[in-house]
Amino acid sequence: MSGDTDRGGEDDATATRRPDGGATGVEKATGRESTRAKPSVLNRIRAELAELTVFDLAVYALYATAIAFFVFPVLWVASASLRPAGELFSYPFRLLPREVSLSAYRQVFQAGMVSWLFNSTLVTIFGVSSIVVVSVPAAYAFSRFEFTGRRGLLGIVLLFQMISPVIIIVPLYTVMSSLGLLRTRAGLILLYVGIQTPFSIWLLKGYFDTIPKELDYAARIDGCNRLQTLRHVLLRPVAPGIAVVAIFNTVLTWSEFVLAFTVLGSESRLHTISIGVYKFQGQYGNDWRAIAAASVIGMLPLVIVFLGLQRYFVRGLVEGSLKGQ
Amino acid sequence: MTADMSDSPDDVHLELQALRKEYPGGITAVEEVSLALPRGELLVLVGPSGCGKSTTLRCIAGLEEPTDGDILIGGESVIGRRPEERAIAMVFQNYALYPHKTARQNIGFGLRMTTDLPDDEVVRRVEDVSDTLGITDLLEKKPGSLSGGQQQRVALGRAIVRDPEVFLLDEPLSNLDATLRARMRTEIQQLQRDLDVTTVYVTHDQVEAMTIGDRIAVLDDGRVQQVGTPMTCYHEPANRFVASFIGEPSMNLLDCEFDRVAGVFDGPVTYPASDELTAAAADADGSDVTLGFRPEAPTLVDPATGHGTSEREAKSGSEAEVGAEPTGQGGALTFPGRVDVVEPVGERSFVYVTLESGPQLTIAVPGGTTVKERTAVGIRLPWSGVHLFDATTGRALHHPEWEQGEPLADLTTGGSDT
Amino acid sequence: MSTADTTARRLLARANDAVRRVLDHPLPWLALALLALAVFQLYPMAEAILMSFTNESLIRPGFEFVGLEQYVRLAADPQFWGMIRVTAIYAFFSVVLHILLGLVLALAIDYGVRRGLRGHLTTRVSVLLAWIVPGIIIGLVWKVMLVESQFGAVNHFLGVLGIGPVPFRSDPTLALISTIVAGTWRGTAFTMIMIYGGLQRVPERLYEAARVDGAGRWDRFRHVTLPQLKPVLFITTVLVTIYALNTFDLIFALTGGGPGRATQVLALFMYQEAFQDYALGRGAAIAVIMLAANLLLTGLYLYAFDVGDEI
Q1: Which ipTM score applies to this complex?
Q2: Most buried of the four, A36, B307, B366, C277, by CB within 10 Å?
Q3: Which residues make Cβ contacts (< 8 Å) with residue C23, sequence separation at least 6?
Q4: Interior angle at CA C202, CA A243 and CA A309, nearest 5
Q5: How close B65 gets to chain A, by Cα (Å)?
Q6: Which CATH number belongs to the domain containing residue C188 in this structure?
Q7: Domain for residue B97, yes or no?
Q8: C-alpha C72 chain-centroid distance
Q9: Is some CB atom of chain A closer than 8 A to the CB atom of B270?
Q10: Which residues span the domain enclosing A68?
Q11: Is B61 in contact with A221 (Cβ distance < 8 A)?
Q12: What is the pLDDT confidence band of residue A39, given thresholds at 50, 70 and 90?
């Protein structure tokens, strides 16, 4: 399966030339697809079909199944959200609603969706920025400094990452309470910094490690202190790593429920989307359309942002691991 | 540059005094290194991996602080000063070019960071340097789209534009392929001469060291084994290590015991000692000595007739040597062996001969010589090719005479320059 | 240059030096991160451990140290063991499914990229799509999809195949299965991405050498791909195990722990004890047990995978 580079009779435009020791298959893929879009599409498709092995067909089947499995619920929810009141469960079952209605959405907005969106956006933007601001210098330190106990400290940091916040939710509550951070968005943001930095530091350190130390030396000789070195020399090469960390944390923060619920759950004007949707469900019980609508809006911003950025996300992840050795 | 320079010339520009670098954990990378360079000299630090040459270079640069000793540039100690305050510039093995900056930005970065020069001045200098190096049309490109040789030049440019007092190069050519390496070597040499900047050049390749350096410093185990011109180190290696390190293929070394009574060296072969050699052997701590001779020293002879297969014999004074075969005690200057492999290199061939007693020797013969593998040969080693080393300490005891050679006539003035 | 200028310059240089000296020490770089960790992870963890030895409760003020009483009571409680069972089953199958699916998908996508097949990008995006949906929403969405009459989406399709309406959420076993499937639906993206990254890291040369040695597809997979993937698989398995062990939001939304206690994982139990029954001490004890389980499994994995310094 992997590593099979049978080309058959395909011409250069479709051959995947792999640079030594790795591939930028992602980019090659998109590049190739655009070349295919040009002359005699039909002929090409015909040629392709002729070349398919049984294995290829199996893989295609897998793709189809995967796509169906992963996308269906999302589609269905979207469809459910667009139905007029009482229409959800019709018989026979329909994927597409007979008539489209936005009444569910109206309901959701009346229940406070705007405020939820606002809170989620606020917390996510500030949360992610704070995490990045805290993680980058720490990752730099772990990568560029040699000090006694470095490995130990790194191990401890990693250990914290292994611990889900759910476990410490109880004492966390008391800590937040005594610090006066309960029922504040700032408190939640600080909490996210504490909880999500280990993973971010670990990830970023990996990216820093791929940059040869000679670059630091050259910068030193060129007159930079460490901060200047970071800013002028290291930041750009590490940028894909920062992008990955930012995206990762955006997804995690936006979707986060437990901590948000613990900190902000009792203050309805501060509810984030996760809390809002949950409480909404509690209120509206079996009004599935409304819940569907809330769900759609809950995931929509993230989906849009992520779909736009997912290529950089994957590329950043792949590049990071590529340079690793 | 004239031939032999003393170890402490008058106009010392860069000096290392008893430099020592220890790392926590007990590793001593540099035990004791002392060097003195006059202004404008290109000194090569050469030695096997781990000998401390790179560490020494980094101490000069200010990237590491020595545990002990002093470093002086222009008579002033620079210990404790940051790299950019030492007026040095460095070229790294992997060039260490900033990947996201253009060549222009790479070259100008140091200038902008350490000086207050106005923008247009920086631009002017960058373009001047690019012109010198022939990379003006590459200025807008990023390192990723440049070839190894081009990156090399940008790295040089970055270093030169700072107008440094001392120029440091850390194995700059190791990442290039052979042809490019040879060409860049010449270019760097030319550049250094033109700029007349004191340069320390680190390499593990002794051929590179020999060709590029005004002087070379051979390091091993954190110590300087010898400092001298390439020719001096070649013809008068200070110890066994230098003898075997410098020269390609390396010097043949045979461990023997000097038999004072019989006047011979007893080892894998029995080799008669001349008066000179006898006197030198007396200097050793004990009777264990090492005979050394370069591949081009001996000639191959037909074991039966004793007639040589080498042209050299026919030329200069070898007839006299043949005639000077010792009489009486001990063996002749010829000993037998069996040819294993013949490696034709072009104008020479290297013949690997195994002695009856075991060791394998490398002999250089002119390219046209017909020597067959697996045949028996005689190796005639004249006294004029024999070095002697103390086997216990490794110290050199005796070197054969060598001539510097007449410099070519100066074609413009019509006279010679001696 | 006036004296004012020189003094200014000297001060500036001094300040510059001081800044440099500070920056040359790792502490200022790590300070913020370490502080955040100390306040929000280290201290609460210590507190949790301490609390587990008390009978602290929000119902009545004051508390006293009771030693291991909380743990003893838990050990004696059969319901507790039932929940351990549920958690273990959930975690085990989740991990297995996550890894298998992630592996298969990563391989398939990688294959598609190399072979120039279509649709690998769409597949990848689809999988990632599932990951970014907030957990709580996933729980709700699946709740709706698994509605137990013929009106439910899934039941409808099953009905087409002739299978009667399945009680996904009211049957204990099926409920557990539903949570596992929903969790896998979301989490596979993570494993897929991690493994995909690892696949890119495998040097092409190794495959070429294997082919020259006569290795077929399966052999290449077994002898080249898998060993090279070991570090990635290790990390991924550890992370997925922890994620599975500590799953809360998804199950909370999908079944709330029910029916009965069929899907009551430890995380839910702990939460309820602490926040619904206000038995903080007991909740803390459960938390400590979960923590210990996490650490134990991590250690086990370290041993099994024999990765050590490769991370």
Answers
A1: 0.81
A2: A36
A3: A225, A226, A227, C29
A4: 20
A5: 14
A6: 1.10.3720.10
A7: yes
A8: 29
A9: no
A10: 12-101
A11: yes
A12: low
